[in-house]
Amino acid sequence: MKIRTKIFFTTALVVIFLLGSLTYFMTRFSSHILMTKMEQDVGFSTSQLSQNIDSLLQSYEQVIDSLYTNSELQSRLLTQYDSVIEAQDVYFDYYLPFVNWVRGSKNILRLMVYTNNPTFQFADVKWIDEEIKQSEWFKTTQQPDKKLVKTWTNLGIDPYYRFRVIRLTQRMNNPVINSQVYVTIDLQEQLLQNLISKENQKQRFIIGLPNGQVVLDSFLDSKAPLLVRDYSFYNQIEQANEGKVVYVKENNERYLLTVKSLDSRSSVRGLKAIVLTPTGELTAKVNEMKRIAIMLLVSSIIIAVLMMYTISTKLTKRLMLLAAKMRTDNITQSYSQIALTGNDEISQLGLIYNQMILRNSLLIKEVYEFEFNKKELELRAKESELYALQTQINPHYLFNTLNAIRGNLLKKGDKENANIIKLLAQSFRNLLGKSGSVVRLEEEIGIVDTYLRIQSYRFGGRLQYQINIPKEHNTYQLPRLSLQTLVENAIIHALEKNEDDTLIYIESQVIDNEQYHIVVRDNGSGISPAALEQIRQQLNDPSMEQERNIGLRNVHQRLTQMYGPEYGLTIQSEEGIGTAVTLMIPLKG
Q1: Is 209 exposed, middle or buried (0-12, 13-18, 19+ CB in 10 A)?
Q2: Is the pLDDT of residue 355 over 80?
Q3: Does residue 405 form part of some domain?
Q4: pLDDT value for 181
Q5: Closest to 558 measured CA to CA, from 320, 379, 415
Q6: Is 186 part of any domain?
Q7: CA dist., res. 184 & res. 30, Å (int)
Q8: For residue range 281-315, what is the model confidence (pLDDT) as tens digits?
Q9: What are the DSSP calls for 512-545, one per residue?
Q10: First to last CA, the chain
């Protein structure tokens, strides 16, 4: 889509938006329609509240139903027991697990069972005596129409918990003759309060039980239970319950009265959810609609100007970004892609520029790979030349000559020098007898051990060494003569420059099942911090021309080239303590 087209369509959309918005808000949300809609919303809210109350109460009625259907537990509650111990066994084995399950799944203050069985009495299982028979809830259950019906009553302030409590009561049907089992569940009134906690704080919520008791009034905090018929608008409640729109006046304020009665089952039939909504809340929204219409008209004009300015700014801004990017790339000779959003001519220019940068990058990569392959071929050629020179030396000639010298020394009784010649011949065999750049750790340790034994003859008791390599590490691979170079470096810098005895310790360990480390430690004089930092720089910078530490640098460069930059050598040293050089090699290298 072209820029000109974008500007045209944007302007058209702004005009349509202004006229459409003004017409829509001035005609659609008239005061009559808005009031009707709000009345419906309040009605829906009241219906939802009643459904929530119904669901909450039903969930606790199901607890009694679970006991009602448990005939075995009822039978044990009514069984006459010969001893207290027998009754306690039944209580702890059957009744208490049921109570714990109920209390663990529901927020119940108190669950009580009343029976006419005097042999089964506990803290929450009571015998029906004369005091209980005179209680209000017990008399209610004795009415002819209440014998098998769950009943909800408002107990007011509980003397123990000191807050309002409601009670659910039901008599259990049991085939045992003359048996009586009653169950009561006490709940905190706050459970009902929680249902309206998220509602409009200016609305008044009243919940009346089927017996006419008011269990909740969000505007009153009376400790004594009220009755629904005590309210001045009691006569209008039945009209509102029939679905009529009813307005009442209470405390010099006008309210919209909405009522919803429950009729889902006998226990809650007649329970009423009553909501009084102040009319000021409704008319305020009508006035707010008028203010919004005026503000919208002004805002639309401002938005139109801002949109035109923003669109033109974005267009020129993208062109400036593209031009600046081209100038910068031309000066720095470092080319990178640019991100331009949209689907117009400017974004097409950015796309073409990015494609050009991509082609240039591919060409540079091809030239770089060509040069890299050329250098690698040259390196392979030099390695081949070195290998050819190495193979020209006949190791058998050296072995035979050294063995002849050793035999002559043995004839003369010079066993020590003969042993040295033997080790030297073995060293030549290890160095010249095998080809390839990678060997097993076991073979490299053989070369190092031979070298250290020769140096032991050279330095006498001043050199001691230990090699601690687990057998399972013998098959690990490493570059040939890399470990021998580290040991030779330790001999030169730790032993030759030190008059004291020197211990060289060699060990290996696996790290994270991905790599293994070979550490060569000595107890020499160590390296100063400045010298140590210089050695580390030489290891990581092959371009530095230095005659010292060539062996360590070559080993480090071989490891990084073969396995990657995360592998190589690390050097740790402390003056007066010693030095530790670590080979880091991948397990599957």
Answers
A1: buried
A2: no
A3: no
A4: 85
A5: 379
A6: no
A7: 53
A8: 767 776 777 677 777 767 777 787 677 767 767 66
A9: TTTEEEEEEEE-S----HHHHHHHHHHHH-TT--
A10: 56
CA gap 89, 498 in Å, rounded: 86
What total of structural domains would you count in the chain?
2
Instruction: Give φ, ψ of 250 to 5 degrees.
Output: -140, 125
Q: DSSP 3-state assignment of 278?
A: strand
Amino acid letter, residue 526:
G
CB 336 within 8 A of CB 329: yes
How buried is residue 372: exposed, middle or buried, by Cβ count under 10 Å (0-12/13-18/19+)?
Answer: exposed
Q: Is 255 part of a structural domain of the chain?
A: yes
Residue 232 Rama label (left phi>0; alpha psi -120 to 50; beta): alpha
pLDDT tens-digit readout, 247-277: 888 778 888 888 999 988 888 888 999 998 8
Q: Give 393's pLDDT tier (boundaries 50, 70, 90).
A: very low
Kindly write down the DSSP assignment for every residue of 145-185, as one continuous string.
Answer: GGTTS-EEEEEEE-TTT-SEEEEEEEEEP-SSTT--EEEEE
Question: Which residue range forms the structural domain that includes residue 576?
Answer: 454-586
Give the orientation angle of helix 441-459 with respect to helix 415-432, to 10 degrees. 150
DSSP string, 206-221: EEE-TTSEEEEETT--
Compute the distance between CA of residue 297 and CA of residue 279 in angstroms, rounded to an integer.
Answer: 28
Is 95 within a domain? no
Q: Sheet with 204-208: list strands edge to edge.
A: 226-227, 213-217, 204-208, 272-278, 253-261, 246-250
CA pair distance 202, 427, nearest whole angstrom: 98
- Whichever domain contains 216, its CATH number is 3.30.450
- Reduce the secondary structure of 388-453 to three states and give it as a string: HHHHHCCHHHHHHHHHHHHHHHHHCCCHHHHHHHHHHHHHHHHHHCCCCCEEEHHHHHHHHHHHHH
Domain boundary among 283, 312, 331: 283
pLDDT tops 50 at residue 384: no
Among 252, 283, 314, the domain boundary falls at 283
| CATH number for the domain that contains residue 556 | 3.30.565.10
Structure tokens at 317: 């801004």
DSSP code, position 460:
G
- E strand or H helix at 463, and its extent? strand 463-468
Residue showing tokens 């230990």: 466
Cα 217 to its chain centre, rounded Å, is 44
Which residues, 6 or more positions from 49, have their beta carbon under 8 angstroms from its beta carbon? 195, 196, 199, 205, 260, 273, 275
Using an 8 Å Cβ cutoff, are 188 and 165 in contact? yes
Q: Which of 89-103, 163-177, 532-546 has the highest mean pLDDT?
A: 89-103
